[in-house]
Amino acid sequence: MFRVPRGTRDFLPEQAERFRSLENLAADLARRYGYGELRTPIFEYTELFERGVGESTDIVEKEMYTFTDRGERSLTLRPEGTAPVVRAFVEHKLYTGPMPAKYYYFGPMFRYEKPQAGRFRQLWQFGVELFGAPGPRADVEVIALGWHYFRELGVESRLVLNSIGCVQCRIGYKEALVSFLTGRDMCRDCCSRLERNPLRVLDCKNDGCRAALESAPVITDYLCPPCREHFDQVKAGLAGLNIPFTVDPLLVRGLDYYNRTTFEYKTDALGSQDALGGGGRYDGLVELLGGPGTPAVGLALGIDRIEMLNPPALDTGGGRRGVWLVTMEPAAAEAIALAHELRRKGVPVQYDLLARGVKAQFKQADRHRCRWALVIGPDELESGRAVLRDMESGDQQQLNLATVADELAALEGVK
Predict the structure, then answer these.
(1) Residue 194, CB half-sphere, CA atoms under 13 Å: how many?
(2) What's the rounded Cα separation, in Å, for the pair 169 and 259?
(3) Among 227, 83, 237, 216, CA closest to 147
(4) Long-range contacts of 65-74 (CB under 8 A, 24+ apart)
(5) 60, 57, 63, 56: which is closest to 47 by C-alpha?
(6) Cut 0.85: pTM above it
(7) How large is the angle between the packed helices 136-153 and 13-32, nearest 10 degrees?
(8) What is the pLDDT of residues 107-136, one digit of tens each?
(9) pLDDT band for position 223 (cuts 50, 70, 90)
(10) Which terminus in the chain has less CB density within 10 A, N or C?
(11) Which are the contacts of 409, defined by CB distance < 8 A and separation ≥ 6?
């Protein structure tokens, strides 16, 4: 028997509906903030991620699904969404349009990780990217959008904030960090990172490495005046929106393209997999990928983990909806014609396809959680009036067949 590949899963109808609700809310919220949807392919040339994400990151070193196609080209299933959006921004010369430019995306990403609760090899993300605004207000808007999403879902989360400064800030900090960590007990990966990219050590989850960092120098002590001012204004902007946060000077995120602001949303409800998403500013990535120098900031939220929190706003186990058409021969053909008219009006309608009896059809109406059962048999056709049963209360009424479609549409709230 075939099984789903390890680290992936099937979404059966009920869970698929929950994910659809999460996507619909994300799209609606993004549009309220002025973001337009941008969809990119699920695979890109491997170099895009090697250059954009960073060759010394865990994503590039350990987690990418990379393959060679028949044309001997190296392709990679996208492990994250920002680099593809930036590639599209550059390729289609979107930087020539009005600024700031705002885009959102929702879709699957792929990472070869050890599967566990809250961690999948095919994962789903909602993200936004804002181009062309260098000031702290752009950072605050992006952070606020993510915070707003959690509030509308009824999900409790904590916002953690940091600034990793600019290239100049990090020169002195890297020297201090390397000096502090040299000779300390760290994992093999971090020993290598200390030579190639010292900031990646801060992102290591190894217990020994975390212990070695407890008294390490922090980047916020090395910020240049402009970066410090930017960070102070981000914090002030969030405070002005009553968005609580804590500052974690070790928060660098797992990608090399960030500068200045970095942030994460965390939860205490999922054990060690506590990050629900995050993001930051990446002012150099557009230029690195072939475009003009363009400031940018964005975020990505982990939809799989958010869904696992069972957000109150996604309670799909409640009310009934739609109509079950209870019919029998020789009235079935006329009744089915009415079903198609109702569907054209936007009313969800189902009817029996297995020649069941009337009692069994009512059981199906209940099993499918239909709100209404509309009975149309020979007697109803002759009288011109159908029987409508409310499957919640059991109350019944008669409706004129000539106007039943409009009346049911009104009952279902369809305009």
Answers:
(1) 19
(2) 10
(3) 237
(4) 65/110, 65/111, 65/112, 73/45, 74/45, 74/46, 74/47
(5) 60
(6) yes
(7) 140
(8) 999 999 888 777 899 999 999 999 999 999
(9) very high
(10) N
(11) 342, 345, 346, 347
Contact residues for 317 (Cβ-Cβ < 8 A; gap 6+): none
SS3 of residue 74 by DSSP? strand
Residues linked to residue 106 through DSSP beta bridges, in sequence order: 126
Tell me the three state secondary structure of residue 380.
Answer: helix
Please give the helix or strand (H or E) that residue 278 lies within, else none: strand 275-281
* C-alpha span between 13 and 85 (Å, rounded): 30
How many CA atoms, within 13 angstroms, populate the side-chain half-sphere of residue 257? 30
| Sign of the CA dihedral running 95, 101, 104, 110 | positive
The C-alpha angle with vertex 324 and arms to 318 and 328, in degrees rounded to 5, equals 155
Query: What confidence tens digit (pLDDT) does each residue in 294-318 have?
Result: 999 999 999 999 999 989 888 655 5
Q: Which two tokens stand for residue 327?
A: 């019919």
In the chain, the amino acid numbered 190 is: C
Q: What is the DSSP secondary-structure string of 333-366? A: HHHHHHHHHHHHTT--EEE-SS---HHHHHHHHH
Locate 195 and state its tokens. 């030579």
Distances 174 to 163, 179, 203, 285 between C-alpha atoms, Å: 14, 8, 14, 21
The total of other beta-carbon atoms located within 10 Å of residue 32's CB is 10
Q: With pLDDT > 90 as the criterion, what percentage of the chain qualifies?
A: 63
The token duo for 112 is 């070869």
Phi/psi zone of residue 88: left (φ > 0), alpha (ψ -120 to 50 degrees), beta? Answer: alpha
> In sequence order, which residues have a C-beta less than 8 Å from that of residue 292 and are 6 or more positions away?
95, 286
Domains in the chain with CATH codes: 13-166+224-314 (3.30.930.10), 323-411 (3.40.50.800)
Sign of CA dihedral 399, 405, 406, 407: positive
In the DSSP assignment, the letter for residue 203 is G
CA distance 205 to 213: 11
